[in-house]
């Protein structure tokens, strides 16, 4: 089936097809961004090790070593 008149030019049909695809992609990306903005990320709330299970002495030692490595030195830099 052919479209009569000025719309029968393949360039016009290609333009409409590109615009339709671009609009679909734009709408899809916008909806995904909205959904992502509504769902909380894991970093919204920081987990603390004392909240769920008691740590074994070895785990407490390992946790303390990690924290001490991440603490700032007197010059304000990480170790």
Describe this structure in words.
It is a single chain. The protein has 79 residues and is an all-alpha fold. It contains two helices and no strands. The chain is rod-shaped. The mean pLDDT is 78.
The helicity comes to 40-55%
The fraction of residues assigned to DSSP E strands is under 5%
What is the overall number of helices? 2
Rg over C-alpha atoms, rounded to the nearest angstrom: 29 Å
Instruction: Tell me the series of helices and strands, N- to C-terminal.
Output: HH
Distance between the amino and carboxyl termini: 73 Å
Shape: rod-shaped
Structural class of the secondary structure composition?
A: mainly alpha
Beta strand count: 0
Low-confidence stretches: none
User: Quick one: biggest sheet?
Assistant: none
Average residue pLDDT: 78
Produce the secondary structure layout:
Blueprint: H1 10-38, H2 57-70
Brief characterization of the structure:
The protein is mainly α.
Characteristics:
79 residues, mainly alpha, 2 helices, rod-shaped
């Amino acid at each position: 089936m052919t479209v009569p008149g000025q719309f029968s030019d393949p360039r016009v049909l290609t333009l409409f097809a590109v615009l339709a695809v671009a609009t679909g992609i734009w709408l899809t990306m916008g909806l995904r961004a909205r959904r992502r903005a509504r769902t909380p990320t894991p970093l919204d709330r920081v987990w603390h090790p004392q909240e769920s299970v008691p740590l074994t002495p070895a785990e407490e030692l390992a946790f303390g070593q990690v924290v001490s490595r991440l603490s700032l030195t007197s010059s304000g830099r990480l170790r």
